[in-house]
Amino acid sequence: MAVLSITNLHKRFGDLEVLNGINLEVNEGEVIAIIGPSGSGKSTLLRCATLLESMDRGTMTYAGVKVVEEDAQSNSVYLPQNKLRQVKALFGLVFQNFNLFPHYNVLKNIIDAPICVQKRNKDEVIKEARALLAKMGLEDKEDAYPFQLSGGQQQRVSIARALINNPKILFFDEPTSALDPELTGEILKVIRNLAAENMTMVIVTHEIEFARNVADRIIFMAEGVIVEQGPPDEVICNPTLARTKAFLTNLAER
Amino acid sequence: MTFSTLMQLASGLRTSIYIFVLTLLFAFPLGLLVALIRMSRNCLLRNAMRLYISVMRGTPLMLQLLIVYFGPYYLFGLSLKNYPAFLAVIIAFVLNYAAYFAEIYRGGIASIPIGQYEAATVLGYTKGQTFFKIILPQVIKRILPPITNEVITLVKDTSLAQVIAVLEMFTIAKQIANQQASMMPLIAAGVFYYVFNFVVAFTMERIEQKLNYYQ
Ligand SMILES: Nc1ncnc2c1ncn2[C@@H]1O[C@H](COP(=O)(O)OP(=O)(O)OP(=O)(O)O)[C@@H](O)[C@H]1O
Ligand SMILES: [Mg+2]
Question: What interface predicted TM-score (ipTM) does this complex get?
Answer without folding.
Answer: 0.93
